[in-house]
Amino acid sequence: MAQGHYRTPFKKALLQFITEPDPFLAMLKWVMTEMMRIETEAKVGAAKGKHTRERTTYFSGARARRVDMRLETVYLLVPKVRKGGYVPFFISERRRSEQALIAVAQEAFVSGVSTRKIERLAQAMGIENISAAQVADFWTRPPAGMWFSHYGVPPA
Fold first, then answer.
1. Structure confidence at residue 36 as a pLDDT band (50, 70, 90)
2. Would you say 30 and 22 are in contact if contact means Cβ atoms under 8 Å apart?
3. Cα(53)–Cα(96) distance, rounded to whole angstroms?
4. Least crowded by CB within 10 Å, which of 67, 112, 129, 131?
5. 22 domain-assigned
6. For residues 101 and 126, what is the distance between their CA atoms, to the nearest angstrom?
């Protein structure tokens, strides 16, 4: 068996998640954290706390970032870098879909659909943690260009 040497580390990694209330969610958080670490270390040019000549910038703490997924809402600590900034690729990729959802909710709200019906629509689409208050909040911050392209005038 040529790949038998991978079983022990893999088994150890899986065993650390078994004790979690939701093992799959814990694994997903761990994978996202590791991807962010690898991505930021590549951008900085060195691991956190290590100094090399290839370093292009420095780590500058972390910020909490909420990521809404079908599985659950996850809060991640996204590393900050001094020069250039950093947004994980898996968070920025979701922005387009989030903007589309907000645009649909705003369009329905403008058309007179109740916030509770919009909330039920979002739940049918797999978004469990949206509330009527969040739907009403979408009204206050339209996507760029929405008012000019659809209604001709910006809100007062």
1. very high
2. no
3. 37
4. 112
5. yes
6. 12
- Tens digits of per-residue pLDDT, 58-101? 888 898 888 877 677 788 999 999 888 888 887 765 566 667 77
Give SS3 for 144.
coil
Please give the tally of structural domains in the chain: 2
Per the structure, the complete domain to which residue 74 belongs is given by 4-85
Query: Model confidence over 104-131: pLDDT tens digits?
Result: 777 877 788 887 887 787 777 766 666 6
- The answer on 57 and 114 residing in a single domain is no
Query: Do 55 and 106 lie in a common domain?
Result: no
3-state secondary structure 87-128: CCHHHHCCHHHHHHHHHHHHHHHHCCCCHHHHHHHHHHCCCC
Q: How far apart are CA 117 and CA 132, in angstroms?
A: 9
8 with 72, same domain? Answer: yes
Return the sign of the alpha-carbon dihedral for residues 58, 63, 69, 74: positive
Does residue 131 fall inside a structural domain? yes
64 phi, psi to nearest 5 deg: -80, 135
